[in-house]
Design a protein that fits this description.
alpha/beta; eight-stranded mixed sheet; six-stranded mixed sheet
Amino acid sequence: MRLIASDLDGTILHADESISARTVAAFAAARNAGLHVVFVTGRPFRWLGPVQRAFGHLGTVICSNGALVYDLEAESILASHTISGSTVLQVQRRIRSLEPGAVFAAETLKGLLLEPGFLDEAASRARIREAVEGPFDVGLLDADGVVKLLAKTHQVDAEAFQDLVEPRIGGLVSVTHSAPGVALLEMAHPEVNKAVTLADYAAGLGIGADEVLAFGDMPNDVQMLAWAGRGYAVDSGHPLAKTAAGRTTASLHDDGVARVIERYLAGDPV
């Protein structure tokens, strides 16, 4: 293995946005041993505070499910794949024709655009301070650069929501989900997912899939876990992630990722 790629939320990052000391030490040991480390997350680049607090300015982070590559050290965007404003509105119309109660948000290079009603909890409103509420406008969407479109409903669960709408929008955007207990779809450029961007990043380092050790927990990690030479899903993860990886480790709360890295650095098979 020459590169370790890991999801954040639910894989190494707890609900309180902490990362255990054991996990921090394992990644530090991997870097000291000469392995490349890259975090691959559904989070926007503006929400990388937990990574900075735990690891400092580590380097490159793949954000927004592969739609954006961010240099944490320079605090700059290295690459992005955006969805046009007209595509956003087309996807929105098609989803609403199937699920009239759906509400939308657009994660952009500049912030977060929210339809009224998207945030239905005071805690969410307090956390997302950079959000702007209002109807979607093609000109604004194009100017800001949409890297991820979000659709939420309270009528069905996430799997049922995806099964319902993906046949109608699959040619326009890629579709996945990663929020436990919430029917929240995450959509990006149709040619983008975590695996595609990670493969490009690794290739730039002269690293192939068989030299990558990857960790994840949710459906948005499926392609990455299947692509990597060694993919692991944490035991607390989604069944689809476990199937794609073909290997499981202990849960997030039992430092499953750290355990695998420790075994690898000790020379044990993984």
